[in-house]
């Protein structure tokens, strides 16, 4: 699951992470944010940091998608190691990202499933994740909370 | 950035001490002072909408006769306080729509069952 990844900086008690993607488009500043939604539910958000704003719908096309996904995965594990009782809510902002996230979960199901219960949502109905299905939203619950 | 395979992360305080990272201090300061709803407005609305719709469904499963006022307050109560007024209105509408839809579906199902 976690292959080559970017170095990153964690701050705000490991709820904000900053890294730089390097590729044919140059250096692109990236941010990953976990924000509290309700109870123990935390929303994972990710985007490009432009001049004074973040764009989470942009496709950077820096030809480093695998490295970026690996960096996000590493950050998710780090966040969850620090806060194992927090559930992570992943909501794609568009169809393109929905397809990408479904692909990532399907391909890496076994690795993710070792540490997390994966819950998928289709039409506002939550269910245990199945690699056979296409989901709108994903939720990660850490297994074996200490 | 720090290039250590064993520990790739560093804290903000460590980053501030590193002169090679001066160019990103401004970005990090921006992130620290900007609320999530401004950073990710679309995702903020989408995720809150999904949460309230899912909670409405869960509540309906528990008690379909719950008064709508109670439905709305129960769903809003655990949400964080930083939701803007326009978004509170939108989310309230979503809850009412979802509840009405679930009620209508349940009534239809009951009618079908009764007819048989």
Description:
The complex is a heterodimer of chains A (146) and B (116). In chain A, 26% of the residues lie in helices and 39% in strands. The mean pLDDT of chain A is 88. With 146 residues, chain A is an alpha+beta fold. Chain A is built from 3 helices and 9 strands; from the N terminus they run βββββαβααβββ. Chain A starts with 7 loop residues before the first strand and ends with a strand. In chain A, strands 1, 2, 3, 4, 5, 6, 7, 8 and 9 form a 9-stranded mixed beta sheet that branches. Chain B has 116 residues and is mostly helical. Chain B contains 6 helices and 1 strand; from the N terminus they run E-H-H-H-H-H-H. Chain B has helices at 12-17, 22-33, 36-39, 41-62, 68-76, 85-115; one strand spanning 9-10. In chain B, helix 4 packs across helix 5 and helix 4 packs parallel to helix 6 (85-115). The longest helix of chain B has 31 residues, at 85-115. Chain B is elongated, with a radius of gyration of 23 Å. The termini of chain B are far apart.
List the helices and strands and how they pair.
The complex is a heterodimer of chains A (146) and B (116).
Chain A: E1 8-11, E2 16-23, E3 26-38, E4 41-49, E5 54-55, H1 65-82, E6 87-90, H2 95-107, H3 109-115, E7 116-122, E8 125-128, E9 137-142
Parallel strand pairs in A: 4-6
Antiparallel strand pairs in A: 1-2, 2-3, 3-4, 4-5, 6-9, 7-8, 7-9
Chain B: E1 9-10, H1 12-17, H2 22-33, H3 36-39, H4 41-62, H5 68-76, H6 85-115
Helix pairs in contact in B: 4-5, 4-6, 5-6
């Amino acid at each position: 699951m976690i292959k080559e990844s970017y170095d990153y900086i964690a701050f705000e008690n490991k709820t904000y992470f900053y890294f730089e993607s390097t590729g044919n488009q140059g250096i692109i500043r990236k941010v990953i944010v976990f924000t509290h939604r309700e109870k123990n539910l935390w929303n994972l958000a990710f985007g490009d940091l432009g001049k004074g704003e973040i764009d989470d719908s942009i496709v950077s096309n820096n030809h480093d998608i695998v490295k970026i996904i690996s960096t996000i995965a590493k950050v998710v594990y780090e966040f969850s190691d620090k806060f194992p009782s927090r559930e992570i809510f992943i909501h794609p902002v568009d169809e393109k990202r929905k397809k990408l996230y479904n692909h990532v979960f399907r391909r890496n199901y076994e690795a993710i499933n070792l540490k997390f219960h994966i819950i998928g949502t289709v039409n506002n109905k939550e269910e245990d994740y199945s690699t056979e299905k296409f989901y709108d939203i994903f939720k990660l619950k850490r297994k074996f909370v200490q | 950035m720090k290039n250590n395979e064993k520990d790739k992360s560093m804290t903000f305080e460590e980053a501030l001490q590193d002169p090679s990272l001066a160019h990103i201090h401004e970005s990090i300061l921006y992130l620290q002072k900007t609320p999530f709803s401004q950073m990710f407005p679309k995702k903020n609305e989408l995720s809150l909408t999904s949460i309230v719709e899912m909670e409405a469904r869960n509540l309906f499963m528990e008690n379909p006769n719950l008064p709508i006022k109670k439905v709305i307050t129960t769903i809003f109560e655990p949400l964080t306080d930083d939701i803007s007024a326009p978004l509170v209105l939108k989310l309230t509408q979503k809850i009412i729509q979802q509840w009405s839809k679930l009620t209508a579906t349940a009534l239809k199902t009951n009618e079908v069952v009764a007819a048989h």
